[in-house]
Amino acid sequence: EDDILGKLPLRNKKVLITAGPTYEAIDPVRFIGNHSSGKMGFEIAKAAANNGAEVILITGPTHQTASHSLIKIVPVTSAQEMYSETHNYFKDVDVAILSAAVADFKPKQVASQKIKKKDSTLTLELEKTKDILASLGANKKHQYLVGFALETNNEIENAKGKLKRKNLNLIVLNSLNDKGAGFKGDTNKVTFIDDKENITEFQLKSKTEVATDLLNKIIKEIDA
Ligand code: CTP
Ligand code: CA
């Protein structure tokens, strides 16, 4: 942690990270959420801080903790809050890594009172949330922008499509087909695809090691 020799590669760099799920309110007591643990994003935050970066970690509801003097945690609940906070910080950062499992849809109307079970069926109308990553890509200047892609089929093609459509420098493909990969556990199996179409496939690893691989790739690419 100490940079006595002033040699940590990301000293003087700011890194924004999103992590965890978002919760989209249905009524005062209920929400639509997902099983993201937040673990991958918190490991990336720790790896960035261990390389000397000043980290802004914008996180949905999780049980993860990170006590490091270089990590500032910004807790949010909904996709809209995550969007606002991410845009608050984006212009000042050198790198942004969006690992959050943002809800794609939210209830169009949030009931102001608890919904009663009076009928035998209930229909909720959902509308799309804003795509945070795509909006950063559209506003990108000097920033190195990294997204994730969670795919179950046509993985490389779908991930490449997201890389281009969202104007990213790098995408981390997570395959849910691989046992031990994804959302909930302590391990992940990823493939990096960069904007020069370099494809690097990794073995199943701990999320801590995946975070190290990702920071090493970013350090190389930004020439830090
Ligand atoms: N993402 C985001 N804001 C959203 C949805 C997704 O910032 N409203 C980001 C995620 O954090 C991730 C990337 O976009 O870095 C890809 O998320 P993913 O769910 O794989 O793709 P989507 O673009 O949402 O498309 P789909 O779910 O239909 O595959
Ligand atoms: Ca999605």
UniProtKB/TrEMBL annotation:
Question: Domain named DNA/pantothenate metabolism flavoprotein C-terminal: which ranges?
Answer: 10-220
This protein's encoding gene? coaBC
Q: Which UniProt keywords apply?
A: Decarboxylase, Flavoprotein, FMN, Ligase, Lyase, Magnesium, Metal-binding, Multifunctional enzyme
Q: How is the cofactor bound?
A: Binds 1 FMN per subunit.
**Keyword check for Manganese:** no
Give residues annotated as binding CTP.
Answer: D104, K114, F148, K162, K166
Answer whether the UniProt record assigns the keyword Electron transport to this protein.
no
* Metabolic or biological pathway: Cofactor biosynthesis; coenzyme A biosynthesis; CoA from (R)-pantothenate: step 3/5; Cofactor biosynthesis; coenzyme A biosynthesis; CoA from (R)-pantothenate: step 2/5
The free-text function statement in the UniProt record for this protein reads: Catalyzes two sequential steps in the biosynthesis of coenzyme A. In the first step cysteine is conjugated to 4'-phosphopantothenate to form 4-phosphopantothenoylcysteine. In the second step the latter compound is decarboxylated to form 4'-phosphopantotheine.
Q: Which cofactor does it need?
A: Mg(2+); FMN
Q: What is this protein called?
A: Coenzyme A biosynthesis bifunctional protein CoaBC
- The residues of the intact protein that this chain contains are 180 to 403 of 403
Q: What is its EC number?
A: 4.1.1.36, 6.3.2.5
Signal peptide extent: none
Name the family. In the N-terminal section; belongs to the HFCD (homo-oligomeric flavin containing Cys decarboxylase) superfamily. In the C-terminal section; belongs to the PPC synthetase family.
Q: Which reaction does it catalyse?
A: (R)-4'-phosphopantothenate + L-cysteine + CTP = N-[(R)-4-phosphopantothenoyl]-L-cysteine + CMP + diphosphate + H(+); N-[(R)-4-phosphopantothenoyl]-L-cysteine + H(+) = (R)-4'-phosphopantetheine + CO2
Region named Phosphopantothenate--cysteine ligase: 15-224
- What Gene Ontology molecular function terms does this protein carry? phosphopantothenate--cysteine ligase activity; phosphopantothenoylcysteine decarboxylase activity
